[in-house]
Amino acid sequence: MKLPFKIDLSERNCVVTGGAGVLCSTFSKALAQCGANVIILDVAAEKAAEVAKTIKENGGKAKAIKTDILDEKSLLNAKKEIIREYGIPDILINGAGGNHPKGTTTNEFFERKDLQKEEVKTFFDLEREGIEFVFNLNFLGTFLTTQIFAEDMTKKDDAVIINISSMNSFTPLTKIPAYSAAKAAISNFTEWLAVHFSRENLRVNALAPGFFLTEQNKELLLDEEGNYTERAEKIISQTPLERFGEKEELIGTLLWLVGNNSAGFVNGNVVPIDGGFSAYSGV
Ligand code: NAD
């Protein structure tokens, strides 16, 4: 991958949750290109191993550990293995997350079910289990991972945590109330952590990606033939740059925030990378 610029991460241990996914596998590769030991934690063991293999084939250092960020035991086992093999992590990227159809309504605006021709899922049909799944994956997963890794990271002089928020955190997107609420919680938690750990020189910031076509959102953005849905067209019409982002376009902000030379005084920020979506009122 052609990096926008390079920072020196040699001998730095970098843990990336969700590192088998679309965005975070790109982050993992970029961090490895800067010399970091990248440890990919993901439930998708095979995909994670594939990412680690690609990194190694390209001369980088990487390891994949099957980990469920919602299971403390699994996180603790991963931490033990990382500390034994590499030492305390310097950088934690809390990337695992995403929405799920179980937490999604059919329509943007409430319409009474008895007046509909087709079967719809309204706000009143959303089940606790679906809401908990999405909220826990996005908020609790980041909370638990941070709790388990940050304790050791506070012993370092210049550790960094990067959370992944979203456009939802500024203004909720229609149809996905749990995902929106969870990402708002991530932005809030980023600020909380930044303050809480500031005396330990552990900086915490978040990326707020705009719209990037990935696994987690393709059901909402592409129809069965792979054409843009009405929602995708609407997003593009509200994005002043008039397109979806390319995942590589997140790397500049990631490296800037990770680098203590470039962002040593940047703490508690949620940075939009969104083609202007969050700045545009629509008029
Ligand atoms: P993705 O689905 O490609 O990747 C998510 C990864 O998380 C997957 O590899 C999955 O296996 C892993 N994962 C899921 N549950 C897990 C668990 N319990 N424990 C460990 N790993 C688990 O999604 P993505 O689009 O690359 O998203 C990455 C992050 O960026 C997410 O937090 C997402 O909410 C956020 N985000 C994405 C977009 C976008 O447009 N794609 C926009 C804003 C924010």
Tell me what the structure shows.
The chain is an alpha/beta fold. The chain has a single domain (13-279), classed as NAD(P)-binding Rossmann-like Domain (Rossmann fold, 3-Layer(aba) Sandwich), CATH 3.40.50. Helices cover 39% and strands 13% of the residues. The chain contains 9 helices and 7 strands; from the N terminus they run βαβαβαβαβαβααααβ. It has helices at 22-33, 45-57, 72-85, 128-153, 177-196, 218-221, 230-237, 251-258, 260-263; strands spanning 13-17, 37-42, 61-66, 91-94, 160-164, 203-209, 270-273. Strands 3-2-1-4-5-6-7 form a 7-stranded parallel β-sheet, with helices on both faces. α1 packs parallel to α2 (45-57). The radius of gyration is 19 Å and the shape is globular. Nicotinamide-adenine-dinucleotide binds next to α1 and α4.
CATH class: Alpha Beta
- Figure out the total of helices: 9
Helix content: 25-40%
Q: What is the number of strand segments?
A: 7
- Report the C-alpha radius of gyration, rounded: 19 Å
Number of domains: 1
Question: What is the N-to-C order of secondary-structure elements (H for helix, E for strand)?
Answer: EHEHEHEHEHEHHHHE
Shape: globular
Chain-averaged pLDDT: 96
- Stated plainly, the CATH topology is called Rossmann fold
Residue fraction in strands: 5-15%
GO biological process, one term: carbohydrate metabolic process
Keywords: Oxidoreductase
Family: Belongs to the short-chain dehydrogenases/reductases (SDR) family.
GO molecular function, one term: oxidoreductase activity, acting on the CH-OH group of donors, NAD or NADP as acceptor
